[in-house]
Write a sequence for this structure.
């Protein structure tokens, strides 16, 4: 389910990369109702400044077979 607008997150490496202009995926998978993987990309304003991040969660059950992602 979507988070509420304004929910705060602890700073994680993928957020830092995206806030510095590099789209990045979370290192690990997570489980809600399904196995999920998250990725983040910077959003720029018309002046070329990063003003926000777009985060996407995607079902990824095939990743349960990759031990380094747990």
């Amino acid at each position: 389910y979507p988070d509420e607008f304004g929910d705060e997150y602890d700073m994680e490496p993928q957020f830092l990369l995206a806030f510095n202009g590099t789209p990045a995926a979370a290192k690990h998978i997570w489980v809600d109702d399904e196995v999920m993987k998250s990725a983040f990309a910077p959003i720029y304003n018309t002046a070329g400044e990063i003003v926000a991040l777009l985060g996407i969660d995607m079902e990824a059950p095939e990743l349960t077979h990759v031990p380094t992602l747990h």
User: Anything to note?
Assistant: The helical segments are 13-19. The two ends are 22 Å apart (CA to CA). Strands lie at 24-25, 30-31, 35-44, 50-59.
